[in-house]
Design brief:
The chain is an alpha/beta fold and 262 residues long. It has 2 domains: 9-189 and 229-254, NAD(P)-binding Rossmann-like Domain (Rossmann fold), CATH 3.40.50; 192-226, no CATH class. The chain is built from 8 helices and 7 strands, in the order βαβαβαβαβαβαααβ. The chain has helices at 18-29, 41-53, 71-82, 106-134, 155-175, 193-206, 210-219, 229-239; strands spanning 9-12, 33-38, 59-63, 88-91, 137-142, 180-187, 251-254.
Length: 262
Amino acid sequence: MDLGIKGKRALILASSRGLGLGIAKALAQEGANVLLCGRSGEQLETNCKAINAQGNGKADWIWADLSDDNFVQTVTGAVQEKFGGLDILVNNSGGPTPGTTEDMTPEKLETYFLSMVARVITLTNALLPGMKAQGWGRILTIASSGVIEPIANLALSNTLRPALAGWSKTLASEVAGHGITTNMLLPGSILTARLDDLDGAAAKRTGKSVEDIRTEKEARIPVGRYGKVEEFAAAAAFLCSQPASYITGSLIRCDGGAARSV
């Protein structure tokens, strides 16, 4: 299938590794020009070299930290300088530290709200006028399956990410008439460094081995295994595509059937 995004300009947040990097690779494979964003300049540069070596879409990068007060200004300036505008925005952020509701101090709530919610919304608002003017745009926000089924010991994530779900759904209705789709993609257990960290934390908390934790988790996934970054990225690329123009306001799971909700 031709996704119809060759030459489209895409910004992928938190794309030095993991899901963000996987999405950047998938979009570039389809011929999109991608702007990677993150806190590791060396890793971002290495990623861009690898993507450019494939000879499809071109890749560039910028250093930007979602926890930085100047994040939105830095990113919007780079988008204008390098691309002159934007067609595809993939909102992605690292997850907060594990913990219970009692671990949620006001300081932690404020810190993670700024980086995971407020700056994502502010950046999107800053880039929307250009998409409206050209009559085409894709906004995809990566969150977590905890949005629909809270995950044990991830109280901060379970609290903050659903705020983005409400925002994304509201925004979808407001911008659909401008040719802009707005969706959320929810990963389940996808093999990334973040998942390694969470499994390690669960092992420490329960006294079990990491291998036992993974075996137990995989047994609860109907597909019977953890997902691959490439599988998740393929779903993301489709939602950013031209053929997906009638999908908006949706909250889509990529979790191997793990969530028990309808």
